[in-house]
């Protein structure tokens, strides 16, 4: 972990505070310090940003999912299509995320409504859980989450004094992401930087706030604009809710969110 930013009062505020992966930023500064489905969703967002997953959206206006899924939400999901390009080298966790999507959808091209319906199928949900376990294991190994890489900032699931210092820097960066004044003063200087900042917003669940004061100028930002990140989390949570096979003492708990249910449950 490399800390970069110590002065929030100049254009260094745009500097990313550490070189951790997007899922690890979310994990380290979330309440439970555990890997959840949002880690998978963040990985998919990054694959969209890097054009490893193509995103086609047949919607003009911004969209936001309400407190409960409605038939209109399902029709919106039908208009958001993902296509796996899978070009170039990938990290193991990224390859496993793509493998999970292929197994879940039985195809390289699918819309979110079709994937949501698949998440209600118990046999597909059982396979999803196994694939998700593999993804989580790879993510932990790549980042040495249980090893030496984070011992100096995290002990017994609590941040050390150094960890608290780095968290403070991340909170300052988060404040920049959602501050209209700071963003206008120190705007992103490229389409890539703009997309990256919105993706970091997703790590803190402020992606829509960050996008409101930035341009919607890439497939990733358009996906965020249509509440794609939230929809992915809903679909993946729903799949885990439909798992019927009993776990064999793997000790993993993902904190499944059952706030949203998808019509046509198994």
What do these coordinates show?
- With 266 residues, this protein is mainly alpha-helical.
- It is built from twelve helices and five strands.
- Strands 1-2-3 form a three-stranded antiparallel β-sheet. A two-stranded antiparallel sheet has the order 4-5.
- Helix 1 runs parallel beside helix 9 and helix 5 runs parallel beside helix 12.
- The longest helix is centred in the middle third of the chain and has 22 residues, at 122-143.
Quick take:
This protein has 266 residues and is mainly alpha-helical. It is built from twelve helices and five strands. Strands 1-2-3 form a three-stranded antiparallel β-sheet. Strands 4-5 form a two-stranded antiparallel ribbon.
Number of helices: 12
Overall pLDDT metric: 89
Largest sheet: 3 strands, antiparallel
Estimated helix fraction: 40-55%
- Ends apart, CA distance between termini: 43 Å
Note the overall shape.
Answer: globular
Could you tell me the number of beta strands?
5
Question: How would you spell out the order of helices and strands?
Answer: HHEHEHEHHEEHHHHHH
The parts where pLDDT drops under 50 for at least 5 residues are 1-6, 248-255
Strand content: 5-15%
Secondary structure class reads: mainly alpha
Strand order of the largest sheet: 1-2-3
Radius of gyration: 18 Å
